[in-house]
Amino acid sequence: PPPEVRTTTPGVTPQAFDGPTYLALQPPPASQLSAFAYRVGLLPPRSTRALEERILPLVQQVCTHPSYVPFFRAHRPDAPVPQSNAPLDVVGNSLLGLFAAEYVHATWPHLPTRATKAAVSAFVGPNTLFMVAKELGATQLLRWARTPRTETQSALILQDALMTVPRALVGLIYQLNSITEARRFAEAFFLSRQVDLRTLLKFVNPKSSLVDVLIKFGWEMPVTRLLSESGRFTATPVFVVGVYSGTVKLGESFGSSLKMAEFRACEDALWRLYLTQAPKGSFTLPSKTFDAA
Length: 293
Fold this sequence. Notes:
Blueprint: H1 19-24, H2 30-40, H3 49-62, H4 68-75, H5 86-107, H6 113-124, H7 126-136, H8 158-162, H9 164-176, H10 179-191, H11 206-217, E1 222-230, E2 238-245, E3 248-255, H12 258-274, H13 289-292
Antiparallel strand pairs: 1-2, 2-3
Helix pairs in contact: 2-3, 5-6, 5-9, 5-10, 6-7, 7-9, 9-10, 11-12
InterPro entries: Ribosomal_mL44_DSRM_fung, Ribosomal_mL44_DSRM_metazoa, RNase_III_dom, RNase_III_sf
Keywords: Mitochondrion, Ribonucleoprotein, Ribosomal protein, RNA-binding
Subcellular location: Mitochondrion
């Protein structure tokens, strides 16, 4: 046990030793902070001791959730209060939202507004932030305190505290370097992930939605045509239907009935339209205008 809970004075009862609380009050080892800083690129290879002494306290701040501050004050009132990652979290959250929004809008220019918002959440939302933090190894470095549910706020769980680390990390990279380096970090750890955007597009009546889209672009009205069929009078028929706008085939699909095949064909046409990606290099992200500055 630590020295503060041991006593050699006769007749004095030693204090009760609370192991989990004692461990929670200890700062992370410098070796783990250094390994984390090298892992995320905050420290270059073979960095100097002076640079490590400057960066490691900032890494410790990144891994300190605001809930840890009142917990530390309650048990160590005379010790210096550690800085939380709240300011860096705010900056990083805004930057991640900016990077993801412009990337989704530039890559899939025809995506509807609701689907765009859902795609941004898929790239930089809570679940992705939690997974990135675990992949970076921030779980062992995180300092936080579980708080119960109140009338004004929900209970704080590990996922809520851990997902602030990547956001604060983006804010720290922006603060130490530039918006260019912050965007590179976001592209490497967030925007490079594969997201199935088809699950974000749900249509109640795809043919009606397709008609609205074609009217918007000034194309001819959609026409569905039966391309092939097999087993019409059996228990397992298969119909292949294509949807056309003039001579251009927009989509194609199959089904066990003509209505199902038509529904899926119109849905496939909408997917092909909304999920059409702009060629790489054909666009410039708006935030890249800050690179020259």
